[in-house]
Specification:
alpha+beta; 14 helices; six-stranded mixed barrel; 2 domains
């Protein structure tokens, strides 16, 4: 059966090769397109998840409304406002840090957590200044909730625990300030307090905004700069399973007035772009299936039309309808498997080339990011072979319905 299927394909070698080329190019396009998209998504997700935390607990700012002051001025009385209250009540620290510590330590889903004291500052020198966020952290705890140490070009996170007035800054900020390791930077707090911090580390996340806008220091230094000896503005949490982040954050937010937000909730608008990319990828998959199906249907339909005499002879010597269908399905699968394998190889080589292309400037990702997940290749092969099998069925069924006596009479 396999021999007969191969011989019929070789008899129309030009059409068979064109169909194989179509399948290979369609499969290769899917592999390269998926590799680029998933590579980009993986990079962004890794940046969002691992540079900070899976869940962030912070004070919740509350809009002022008439309901905010119910029972405050005149208990048990109806109050009518000439001008309703507006604006926002801003909370500058967590009110029940110890309670959160107890809850997080008792929750088996929590891998680690770390307190932070964060505030906006100005950082610069005589010729350059820029706004930044100063993160006061506990180095021993912070290293357990983020992969910051993996992004350090110089120094280490534990350097911050050696004393006060130490800082780790981003590579772009370091270049803009012209400061080196063990040099000093000046920061100014919103209250006008000035301080000099010694640079003991330089990090690079690959994002220009992060590499310029974040400064890390010891939490005691941050508390001294904010004139608060025990305030905590945030608790960052790392879970054992990052996929549970949104569910856990929603659950915790039900029993607290603090803001509890997972990484995916905080970046919902960005992740919606990923959904659009997945729709585009699905559309490309549909186009590939149509290309493969049309090509195989066309060539097998021509084989059925031109090989009617051979089909009649095969039916006469004992081939039944099932055998005939099987013969043409094998031809479709041969085309699908060979074309898919060639497409996977072309797609892989294309991804290798794409990953060497430099993009952006010096402060952005320097090379195209490509994913080589096995699922891309498995799915690409599966859709190509499945499309080949399905598109082979109609010509196979048509061939199976041919009656040998009618073919012979028509030939005569």
């Amino acid at each position: 059966m396999l021999f007969l299927a191969g011989r019929q394909l070789l008899d129309r070698l030009q059409q068979s090769m064109l169909t194989l080329t179509g399948i290979a190019l369609g499969t290769a396009a899917y592999v390269m397109f998926s590799g680029i998209m998933l590579g980009f998504q993986d990079q962004i997700v890794d940046l969002l998840v691992n540079t900070d935390a899976h869940i962030r607990i912070s004070p919740r700012d509350q809009l002022r409304s008439p309901e905010t002051y119910e029972g405050v001025f005149f208990p048990e009385s109806r109050v009518s406002w000439i001008t309703p209250p507006s604006g926002m009540n801003t909370a500058d620290h967590l009110s029940n840090v110890y309670g959160w510590y107890q809850r997080l330590e008792a929750d088996p889903r929590v891998a680690a957590f770390a307190p932070q004291l964060n505030q906006q500052v100005m950082v610069g020198n005589a010729s350059y200044s820029v706004a930044a966020v100063l993160f006061g952290v506990e180095p021993a705890r912070q290293r357990l909730v983020s992969n910051m140490e993996a992004n350090l070009l110089e120094g280490s996170l534990m350097e911050l625990s050696r004393g006060n007035s130490l800082a780790i800054i981003g590579s772009r900020l370091q270049r803009n300030l012209g400061v080196r390791l063990n040099g000093r930077i000046q920061i100014v707090t919103p209250t006008g307090k000035r301080a000099y911090l010694k640079v003991v580390g330089i990090y690079e996340f690959g994002n220009s905004q992060l590499d310029q806008g974040f400064i890390y220091t010891d939490i005691h230094t941050a508390q001294a700069l904010s004139d608060s000896s025990s305030f905590i503005t945030d608790i960052v949490v790392r879970l054992h399973d990052v996929s549970q982040a949104a569910e856990v954050a929603t659950q915790w937010s039900q029993f607290t007035r603090d803001k509890v937000e997972s990484w995916d909730q905080a970046n919902e608008s960005l992740l919606s772009v990923f959904q659009m990319q997945d729709v585009i990828r699905s559309s490309l998959t549909a186009v590939i299936v149509l290309i493969i199906a049309f090509g195989i249907y066309n060539i097998l339909n021509m084989v059925v039309f031109q090989k009617q005499k051979e089909i009649a002879i095969l039916r006469s010597i004992g081939f039944d309808q099932k055998d005939t269908i099987q013969l043409f399905l094998i031809q479709g699968l041969i085309l699908g498997v060979l074309g898919s394998l060639a497409g996977l190889l072309i797609g892989f080589l294309g991804c290798l080339y794409i990953s060497t292309i430099s993009i952006g400037g010096e402060d952005t990702i320097r090379q195209m990011l490509v994913s080589y997940k096995p699922s891309i290749y498995i799915f690409g092969f599966s859709i190509s072979v499945t499309a080949a099998a399905l598109s082979s069925f109609l010509p196979a069924r048509r061939a199976a319905k041919l009656q040998p006596i009618e073919i012979i009479r028509g030939a005569g």
